[in-house]
Write a structure and sequence with these properties.
The chain is α/β, with parallel strands linked by helices. 31% of the residues lie in helices and 16% in strands. The protein is globular and about 40 Å long.
Length: 153
């Protein structure tokens, strides 16, 4: 029987899911530098600014270590509907930092971000968010046009 997953982003709320048998944790990370630069105009995930997001890589590193000690996987949500072309390099850098601390995967909505991360060499597992809206060929594309190259019919 599969154990439940936990959807959390606060450090204090993470201990309970471990104790209740979660097998996977997924959480939001929005570094303070991102908040300072974009505020409410540019969320990294669907929670928005300050709503259950960790604001430091160090917090995420502690949670990843705790999860891995319990043999749990950790995925980070990057499930805002779309990102601007200017935001993509910052997200690629963030994903690199997340990989370095041992994050297991990403949950992504924007197909343009998926392609950008693949082109940048990210090896993290990627799951399409349940809110993902894939663009068909010829439709307007999020993330500076990268998703027009993703042909899903």
């Amino acid at each position: 029987m599969k154990r439940p997953r936990s959807f959390t982003g606060s450090y204090t709320a993470i201990v309970t899911p471990f104790r209740r048998g979660a097998e996977e944790l997924y959480l939001g990370v929005m570094p303070q530098s991102w908040i300072d630069r974009y505020g409410d105009a540019g969320w990294l995930n669907r929670r928005g600014e300050g709503k259950g997001n960790l604001t430091a890589i160090e917090q995420a590193a502690q949670l990843v270590a705790l999860a891995h000690a319990q043999r749990l996987t950790v995925s980070i949500t990057l499930n805002a509907p779309a990102y601007t072309a200017a935001q993509l390099p910052e997200i690629v850098e963030l994903v690199g930092q997340l990989a370095e601390i041992g994050v297991d995967g990403l949950i992504i909505t924007d197909p343009g971000l998926m392609l950008t991360l693949r082109a940048a060499g990210s090896r993290l597992a990627v799951k399409a968010s349940s809110v993902a809206a894939l663009c068909v060929a010829g439709s307007p594309a999020p993330s500076g046009g990268a998703s027009r190259d993703l042909k899903i019919l």
